[in-house]
Amino acid sequence: MSIIALGIIIAVKVVVILVIILGIGAYLTLVERKVAAHIQRRPGPMVVGWHGLLQPLADGIKLLTKEDILPSSANPILYNLAIVMALVPATLVFAVVPFGPEVHVFGYDIKPILTDVNIGIILAFAFGSLAVYGVALSGWASNSKYALIGALRKAGIIISYEVVITFAALGPIMLAKSLSTYDIVMAQIHQKVWYIFLQPISFVVFVFALLAETGRVPFDIQEAEAELVTGFTVEYGGMKFGLFPLVEWYVEVLSLSSILAVLYLGGWSPLNIPFIGFVDPFFFLGAWSGFIWFIIKVSILFLLVLWLHWTLPRYRIDQITTVAWKVMLPLALFNILISAFIAPLLRG
Amino acid sequence: MIKKVFEKPLNFLETIFFLDFIKGMSVTIKQAFTKTITTHYPYEKLTAPKRFRGFFGHKTVNGLEPQPAFDEWAERMKVEPQPSKSRCVVCYLCKKACPVPDLFEIDGKKLENGKKVVSVFNMNLMLCTFCGLCVDACPVDCLFQSDIQETASFSRKDAILNLEKLELIGKVWQDRREQEPDRIWIDDEAREKLWRENKLNLRKVDNA
Amino acid sequence: MQATEKTLNEIKAKIPYVDVKKEKLTSVVYVQKELLFNVLKAIKEDFGFKLFIDHSVVDTLEADNRFEAFYILYNVDTKERILVKTKTEHALPSVEKLWFAAKWAERECYDMFGINYEGHEHLVRAFMWDTYSHYPLRKDFPLGGYETVELPSLNESTFGDNLSGTMNYKRTHTYVPTLKDLEYTERNRIKKKAQVVLNWGPLHPGTHGTMWFLFDLEGERIVQTDVILGQLHRGVEKLAEHEPYQQFLVYTDRMDYISGLCSNQAWTVTVERLLGIEDMVPLKAKYIRTMMSELQRINSHLLWLGTYALDLGALTIFLYAFKEREKIMDIIEGITGARLTISYTRIGGVRMDLPQGALDVIESFVKFFPKELKDWEKILSRNRIWVKRNKEVGVLTKEDIYFYGLTGAVARGSGVFYDIRKLEPYDAYSMVDFDVPLGENGDCYDRYLVRVEEMRQSIRIIEQCLQKLKTMSPNEPFMAESGDPKKLKLTLDGIGLKVPAGEVYSSGENPRGELGFYINSKGGLKPYRVKIRPGSFYNLCVYPHLMENRYIADAVTVLASLDPVVGEVDR
Q1: For chain C, what is the radius of gyration of the CA atoms?
Q2: Which helix or strand (DSSP H or E) is residue A99 part of?
Q3: Residues in chain A with pLDDT < 70?
Q4: How far is CA C454 from the centre of its chain?
Q5: Is A40 touching B (CB cutoff 8 A)?
Q6: Going by CATH, does the domain composed of B56-176 fall within 3.40.30.10?
């Protein structure tokens, strides 16, 4: 392809990803509030727009028009850098997520993934690890005891669960014999089995690690309102404050759910009957049905995360780290052992 | 008489299959598909019950006073009852019954025929505890509590009730709600959202 | 009940230098100030009066030995209560080695009366800030305080307000503490031993009110804690000396504002016992009071459950509990007219009879509630996270209960059978059938189970009261009629009610503990001294002991399971 066509394709992909991620991220706040409200037998936002549809807009305008404060003894460079360090890595994960199969548009073959590097999974986890910087820097730069305690707790959790998540993900990687996200999905399609059926232990461990990395109940100890009153974001105001939950709770959940869908639920593949084949009610859309299936899978995972959030109580910090190192890591290693026996039996 | 409380700990199967989480989540999801219970204030409002202890009022002389108590007290305190004006006989019993000494400011003025009539009756509601002891003390069923509860305002003057405001509240109440029966609440339909799941069926309002 | 003649004679035989006397309503042991510690030790250890109920002081304004101090103790095995009295001019020996609860009671007496306690480990003021120089409950301190500061902002006239006379505020005000005073109090309260001193409160969403905790932290571990109280202190005991008995009822609901009716009932029963008219109260009034009090108990426990689950992260239980609470408040509003500060009971009965339809509504509530409770238990009781957060946290042994003067669900969670409704029944509690739940280990999980079970037992009591009330005709009296209106004037408004001289201590089982009233009356319309024994105050005094060497995250769990309400702690 010519350079210009390549440039246009890449630009379109970048714009689509940014718009979708940040736009959907804002509307996910409304989804969460409505789901949480109906679980609690009340209607949620109803006044702004029809049944609250313009509420994220109202929230955004409110947060943007608030005063931009800086505590007098805080470090201004680190204070502002922390927000950037939180937002950027979370968005970058979407660079390696495949949204669907290869499609033909205007005569070109396009893979709907921004960069199909052959170490995609490692990049995804590396970006997830960079999220620690946002937390640690904001906790230190706020110069407040509550922020410091919250930041230290969260940093401890993220570091422990990074190890767990990487070891848990090694299972499907061994079965697929590749580190590229696109190839893992293709491997599941060729082998005609979603890896969730072969790796249930690893799936459960990955879900818990997802909840811990993104700071959702039962692991949201750093924002435990009763003790720390929003933890490390306590000295932030306005949109800077709004950005932290947006990134943590919505964008990171979306990105890690996408990785979960890619690793265990077969990415864009339709419904699977193990070892037999695929059933696709949307077959009339041709290659575009893959996008619909991907969106459905990520939505179901997001709703599952919400459902857990509004039901369970939360753990204490020492219990979280104990569970990570003493229970989940051995389970993940045990899972790797079993996968080592299963992997040669699968074709392709 | 004594009941020991304990709960069984989780057994092994429940631990690995997360049955405790699943049971909890089933309760939540069932609640998510039931109707909501909230009243969308201020677009929907509930009516306060008849016994509600809101702002005060003076009932006016309209022929429905408690007899023979009203005539006896008007005689004893030498007060001339004036139709469509407050029933107050300036006996100061409400001021004695109130836990706050400075809340009431009551005075009467003499008329030409030697009898008195109430002229000043100020209540400082910033000090009031809304306990109702003054209502219990009034011997002629004059002072009472209405259902006015939305009383936010911008100045302190609106919290001081004087005789005209009290008479106005009383007159409006007597027209609006005096004839209601003494039922626990009167607006069954508005409360239906909250009480539907209890399958409450009260007998219909019998207009006494 | 009060200690029997036999016990008093045994005490006199064993310790000959005390005086014993059995009055109509109390059993008293008089002792000299110097021998106080040994006498209390003997009474505690040899005669079994292990549970500390209360300690305070009465200012008698006599020429010598102006203050009369009293200690109220309870024997759980023989169900006897005893009063130990002594007189002093300005100092007393401290008994904090015998009961830790006495340490806090002594701080309060030092704060309010200026009595110096010898041997007290850290005598600071309980409610006022440390640089305050007066002693408010002494009889020579005026009711309104010393108004020395001018605060013109109270009288700004905007919008043309020109309120005259009593309808406006005064221009001068009592001294208001500044930031310097508060910082001095904070630094004086705790001696820093570890890395960081963290202020938890006074304005914090997690502390159940305006309590100010100081944590001395080493990383995430708490090395020592202390509590600064008094942010909500309103001087209720001082006001009681200037209010007639019926009018004081209004202040009792504002102390424990979540279960106002139970506090009203406790005060009314105390005055009725002092007057001797307990049997004159009509049966209907007793059943109505019991039923409403049990509804308030469910109300209070639902708030406790909601905020407990909220603090620990299960956010939906909060709203489910408030849905049921909304129903109870609707019932109470329909019957009494108010939702929070109720003042429904009167000395001799209740204010009004039940309206039409009340019994049907209560019956439909009672049928549906146990199902809801079972659903919520599915979310919480066997959930592994809940169990892990609550088991082995905040363990209290039976000896701790006696040493710290704990009552209510906290005592029952550790296996001590202490329920005033069974031990000293009042109103209709002797005529209904119910069980008292007891826990085994005394940790937070047991206290949770005990309170949930108490809600079920309350439903049982309400059902029995409903059955009884349905059989009563609407014309039965709900207020006692006095036989001799000149001697005893019982009216709905309470004007002119004279109470004979004497003293009484009587308590009621509030959802939070035992709320007791000690009234010392010298005849007349107004009491001479009222001491309120708050359940939450003594339940809170075990908090520093429980928090040693625990994480900050447990601070929330332990505090929520003790269930304090600041209105009652600070009065």
Answers
A1: 24
A2: none
A3: 1, 221-231, 347-348
A4: 19
A5: yes
A6: no
Nearest to C556 among A145, A149, A227 (CB): A227
Give contacts of A145 with chain C, Cβ < 8 Å: 196, 198
Distance, in angstroms, between A69 CA and closest chain C CA? 21
Q: Count other Cβ atoms within 10 Å, centred on residue C175.
A: 16
Residue spans of alpha helices (H) in C254-408: 260-275, 283-312, 315-336, 358-380, 384-390, 398-404
* Nearest-CB residue to B24 (from A41, A42, A311): A311
Q: Are A281 and A293 contacting, i.e. CB atoms less than 8 angstroms apart?
A: no
Per DSSP, helices labelled H in C117-259 are 179-189, 236-240, 249-253
Q: Using CB atoms, pick whichever of A42, A227, A313 lies closest to residue C389.
A: A313
Nearest-by-CA chain C residue for B136 = C493
In this structure, chain C runs to a length of: 571
ipTM of the complex: 0.90
Spatial neighbors of C164 by CB under 8 A, at least 6 apart, are none
Cross-chain Cβ contact C356/B102 below 8 Å: no
Check if the beta carbon of residue C25 is closer than 8 Å to that of residue C504.
yes
Tell how strand B143-145 and strand B56-58 pair up. Answer: antiparallel
CA angle A52, A56, A57 (to 5 degrees): 100
- The helix (run of H) or strand (run of E) holding residue C247 is none
Q: Do A43 and B40 make contact, defined as CB atoms within 8 angstroms?
A: yes
- Which residue ranges make up each domain of chain A? 1-65, 72-345
pLDDT in tens, A215-254: 887 787 666 555 666 667 777 878 888 888 888 888 888 8
pTM value is 0.91
pLDDT in tens, B99-138: 888 888 888 888 888 888 888 888 888 888 888 888 988 8
Cβ distance C301 to C293 under 8 Å? no
pLDDT reading at B207 higher than 80? no
How is residue B17 written in tokens?
């299959």
CB distance C335 to B49 below 8 Å: no
Four-point Cα dihedral A193, A196, A202, A204, nearest 10 = 180
Q: Is A278 on the interface with B (CB under 8 A)?
A: no
Write down all domains in chain C, each with its CATH number in brackets. 5-118 (3.30.460.80), 236-570 (1.10.645.10)
Residues 6+ apart with CB under 8 A from C441: C391, C392, C395, C414
Q: And the tokens for C82?
A: 């005893």
- Is residue B37 less than 8 Å (CB to CB) from chain A? yes
Dist CA B151 CA B141 (whole Å): 24
Characterize the bridge pairing of strands C436-438 and B2-4: parallel
Q: 3-state DSSP helix/strand/coil percent for chain A, to nearest 5?
A: 70, 5, 25
Question: What are the angstrom distances between the C-alpha of A162 and each of A125, A128, A130, B38, C340?
Answer: 8, 8, 11, 43, 50
Q: Which is nearest to C195 in space by CA: C163, C220, C227?
A: C220
- Which of B10, B31, B131 is closest, CB to CB, to C382? B10
Instruction: State which residue of chain C sits closest to B135, comparing Cα positions.
Output: C493
**C462: confidence class by pLDDT, cuts 50, 70, 90:** very high
What is the SS3 assignment for C87? strand
Secondary structure (H, E, C), chain B: CEEECCCCCCCHHHHHCCHHHHHHHHHHHHHHCCCCCCCCCCCCCCCCCCCCCCCEEECECCCCCCCCHHHHHHHHCCECCCCCCECCCCCCHHHHHCCCCCCEEEEEEECCCCCEEEEEEEEECCCCCCCCHHHHHCCCCCEEECCCCCCCCCCHHHHEECHHHHHHHHHHHHHHCCCCCCECCCCCCCCHHHHHHHCCCCCCCCCC
For residues A137 and A113, what is the distance between their CA atoms, to the nearest angstrom? Answer: 31
Sign of the torsion angle spanned by Cα atoms A117, A118, A119, A120 = positive
Ranges of beta strands (E only) in C62-177 are: 67-75, 80-88, 91-93, 116-118, 149-150, 172-173
